[in-house]
Design goal:
transmembrane helix; nine-stranded antiparallel beta sheet; Lipocalin; 34% strand; mainly beta; 419 residues; 5 helices
Length: 419
């Protein structure tokens, strides 16, 4: 091409190379992409892992080693029959939170009520009544639907179906504004089939069983209960009682413990009835006492006592005079109604240990027995013939078990409040 003045000669455009970038490079220059480094906790893990391990071990150790709560039955036990089932209504104290899980379900101090099926020993329901310390309650009576409880806050009413509180203490209709908060202000009158209540002004009221309202009592009821109920005072605490002699169900025959010889530690049972005396079996008991029935929460009986003669008897032989006094007051052997006597004794006279034996009054044979951790508590007999006794488990002094003696003479130990 010829040169034209004023114009530069034309040159071809330079070849443009297309640049392609890839994390993998090119076939001739391959590249390997960098991998992302995973996020690591580093020092944080060094702190958290040991801490979590120590915390888990502490919680597990607390769960496994936490002491069980202390269970102590109150003496105010009562009986009921609901929907064809014979029940023992058992108030008890539960002190201590127990393990971590249990502490979330219970208060530190609780007073609860458990309904125990007397035929099976199963707990039908168990409800909280109070979270106060040193709060007492007792079953006064029970109908077919409701149970009536005297408490340190007054009279309260429970539903026998599930233990729900139907009427709180202080809310009984007919007693508004005058209801006594004394646990000693309430009783049961079988003659009229009603709970009787003394108000703060001295008035006596009655509440028929399965009723929720109180009404002024008639003159006869007022006279019967005058001086028996008190507008001040706590729920009666009835301890266990034994004797060397006790009446039987007929009110005339008796059973007694008689030493096997003068100065002997052991004693045998002797039954005295219309046909005379006879040895009741050959069993020898040490440190023994016949368990007395204490079914009545309060009583309206009266008895004439010659005080001068009683003092003379106590001066001569205090133990015998005391036993005669209790027998004169009608002390009946627990279980006598079903043909049994209950004997508390020491299996070995040299060892501080205790046991309960059930003795058949007809044959003298021991029908059942169990060991206990201490002396027995209150014993009482229900309408169906079951005798219940408050007892301590072996190795414990807490009276936390309910011993049920069936009418045929068998024994079942029921643990209350162990959940």
């Amino acid at each position: 091409m010829s040169h034209v003045p004023g114009y530069a000669s034309a040159q071809p455009f330079p070849t443009r190379q297309q640049v392609v970038r890839s994390p993998y490079g090119t076939p001739t220059h391959p590249l390997t992409p960098k991998t992302k480094r995973p996020y690591r906790f580093g020092f944080l893990w060094l702190v958290l892992v040991p801490s979590l391990g120590i915390g888990g071990a502490a919680i597990g150790g607390e769960y496994l080693s936490a002491p069980e709560p202390d269970i102590a039955l109150q003496s105010g036990i009562g009986f009921a029959r609901h929907d064809g089932t014979d029940l023992a209504l058992v108030p008890y104290d539960r002190n201590g939170s127990g393990d971590l899980i249990t502490s979330l379900q219970h208060e530190m101090f609780e007073v609860r009520m458990a309904a125990v099926d007397l035929a099976t020993g199963d707990t039908e329901w168990d409800v909280l009544l109070s979270d106060e310390l040193s709060w007492r309650t007792a079953v006064v009576a029970a109908g077919e639907q409701y149970a009536y409880l005297a408490s340190d806050d007054g009279l309260m009413i429970l539903d026998l179906a599930d233990g729900d509180v139907v009427t709180e203490a202080g809310d009984v209709p007919g007693l508004e504004g005058s209801q006594s908060v004394s646990g000693a202000a309430y009783g049961f009158d079988p003659a009229i089939g009603a709970v009787v209540a003394l108000d703060v002004n001295g008035g006596v009221h009655s509440i028929p069983l399965d009723s929720l309202e109180a009404a002024p009592a008639d003159a006869d009821t007022t006279a019967t209960w005058s001086g028996v109920l008190f507008a001040e005072g706590s729920v009666p605490d009835i301890g266990g009682m034994t004797g060397t002699e006790a009446l039987l169900a007929d009110g005339e025959s008796s059973v007694r413990l008689e030493p096997t010889a003068d100065g002997a530690l052991g004693a045998g049972l002797v039954l005295e009835g219309p046909e005379g005396e006879r040895a009741l079996g050959t069993r020898v008991f040490y440190g023994a006492g016949i368990v007395l029935d204490q079914s009545s929460l309060v009583s309206t009986f009266s008895v004439e006592i010659d005080v001068d003669e009683l003092i003379e008897e106590f001066m001569e032989d205090a133990a015998a005079a005391g036993q005669d006094l209790w027998t004169g007051l009608g002390s009946t052997a627990a279980g006598a109604g079903s043909g049994h006597a209950l004997v508390e004794h020491q299996p070995d006279p040299a060892v501080e240990a205790y046991a309960l034996h059930v003795v058949d009054l007809a044959t003298g044979q021991v029908t059942a027995s169990l060991e206990t951790g201490s002396r027995l508590g209150r014993a009482l007999t229900g309408p169906a013939g079951h005798t219940v006794v408050i007892a301590a488990p072996e190795g414990s002094f807490w009276l936390g078990d309910l011993v049920v003696v069936a009418p045929e003479g068998s024994i079942e130990r029921v643990e209350i409040g162990r959940d």
